[in-house]
Amino acid sequence: MTQQVKAIRIEANGGPEAMKLAMVDLPPPGTDEVTIRQKAVGLNFIDIYFRSGLYKQSLPHGLGCEASGIVEAVGANVRHLKVGDRVAYGQSPLGAYAEARNVPANFVVKLPSAISFEEGAAIMLKGLTAQYLLRQTYRLQGGETILFHAAAGGVGLIACQWAKALGVKVIGTTSSPEKAALAKANGAWEVIDYTRENVAERVLELTGGNKVPVVYDSVGKDTWLTSLDCLQPRGLMVSFGNASGPVDGVSLGILASKGSLYVTRPMLGDHVATQEKMAAAAGELFDMIIAKNIKVHIGQRFPLHEAGKAHAALAGRQTRGATILTLD
Hints:
By secondary structure, the protein is an alpha/beta fold. The protein contains 9 helices and 15 strands. The protein has helices at about 45-50, 115-135, 155-165, 175-185, 200-205, 225-230, 255, 275-290, 305-315; strands at about 5-10, 20-25, 35-45, 65-75, 85-90, 100-105, 110, 145-150, 170-175, 190-195, 210-215, 230-240, 260-265, 300-305, 320-325. Strands 3, 4, 5, 6, 7, 14 and 15 form a 7-stranded mixed sheet that branches. It has a 6-stranded parallel sheet with strand order 10-9-8-11-12-13, sandwiched between helices. The longest helix has 21 residues, at about 115-135. The mean pLDDT is about 95. Keywords: NADP, Oxidoreductase.
């Protein structure tokens, strides 16, 4: 039976004010879907890209791709989940900003009882991102020194902890002494305040002139050239976000002039493309949390109807760690 639930919708791209709380129809799940009564929703920078129109989607549409909750109904073809299961997901079609919704079952994993719903909503997209970056895109072995931009952000805090557990030294970048202290408290070896220091010069100094084999960069336009200057010859530039705007107009010759560098622009979806791959990546993430190698840091909570305020805080770089939307 179709039910009605509260959800955030946008009818036109724009600022935070474009998001409206509405009542929407929720039909029974399709054959390969599950209905999830949501307990908490994760907020991510990609949500801002879809709201603003940087990432295109047919209008009107919902927002969000990460949440946790309880399975309320199961489609006929679903075998790995049942009604009543505690679950989470971090990769789904848009629409997570809602009380309940249908989600393709392949995106959904069981949430261990040792991990809370709030932690599940805060960790899935950011934690799975850290997993594919550190364990798939460039598989850290231990002993490396790496550069990770936005080290005090949601992904950055997880990556700092995960890398430290692997025996890797993380040089993080942040925009304030408070954020630098937070990154260090979460495992960063050294932190560079890019508003006061020259990042490339400090990396050269910290590595004894060796630079780093890999840079993880979610900032985009503002840090592109600096990131390349921090890499060793044949190093890998991992550009996985556009917080300052997209990187464009790049001449490939710059990669040669700076040391035969490699560049990749990876996406989470290509690393967890099947239910088996999703379960394996999530399982590794959950194991790290349960072993207390990773602590989920939730810096901000907003009720669903204040999603606009949450977006404004995230875009204004006023957040620390993860931000979640709460549901009654």
